[in-house]
Amino acid sequence: KQALNGSKISFRLQLYRATLYNCPRIMSHDILNFVFLAFLTAGFISPSEQDDNLKISVYYETYCPDSINFVMNQLAPMMGEFNKYPDWLILELIPFGFAKETGHFKWSCQHGPKECAGNKLDACAINELVTKQNKPLYMRLVNFIYCTMAADNQVKAARQCAAQTGVNYRKLMKCYKGTEGDKLLEMYENITASLQPPLNWVPTAVFNDKYNETENNEAQTNLYGVVCSYMPDECK
């Protein structure tokens, strides 16, 4: 299945819709294993209102069924639709969720150690493709995460996905295996902790840094519609 517009990735993807296993703050430890695909957040500026940013922040976990469902069925299609406005796109991904710090640079994640690893991998990818770039490579980031999250083991898939999406695998893994990745994950822990009201569900979508329950609920099944409510002229 083709990842997104312009992507060279080609792989078979199984999608499991999360109708029974959601990701609130407290979850049962008896969690099913899923194969998922994830990506994360985007914001846009309408061409007619280029002084106004629409920022979308997505708080998520890399192995959470609802997070994966949201990324695949809402975020990725919306990103593909609005990629024609790359200069107006603001993308913020917060890969942490309800992880708990258990020691210095040590965390316990809802879906086990693999999720902590996936969160850190995403943090490093964001750092390489967005933070360190003069012009953020949002679509490349989305395609990379799309690819890794389609695999059972996201970290093991990173080499092939990096090659397919033009990501520097050596730099990515240097971050992931070193303290840089730990520091980034700690940063996302602090960002998550500062959210008001406190995070109680993932994925959570926040628009322009102001949480709105109605918008978040609508975004779970109609993210495109919420974005269009901010920039209706571009959705005609």
Automatic annotation (TrEMBL):
<dbReference type="GO" id="GO:0016671">
    <property type="term" value="F:oxidoreductase activity, acting on a sulfur group of donors, disulfide as acceptor"/>
</dbReference>
<dbReference type="InterPro" id="IPR004911">
    <property type="entry name" value="Interferon-induced_GILT"/>
</dbReference>
<keyword id="KW-0732">Signal</keyword>
<dbReference type="Pfam" id="PF03227">
    <property type="entry name" value="GILT"/>
</dbReference>
<keyword id="KW-0964">Secreted</keyword>
<comment type="similarity">
    <text>Belongs to the GILT family.</text>
</comment>
<protein>
    <recommendedName>
        <fullName>Saposin A-type domain-containing protein</fullName>
    </recommendedName>
</protein>
<keyword id="KW-0325">Glycoprotein</keyword>
<dbReference type="InterPro" id="IPR036249">
    <property type="entry name" value="Thioredoxin-like_sf"/>
</dbReference>
<dbReference type="GO" id="GO:0005576">
    <property type="term" value="C:extracellular region"/>
</dbReference>
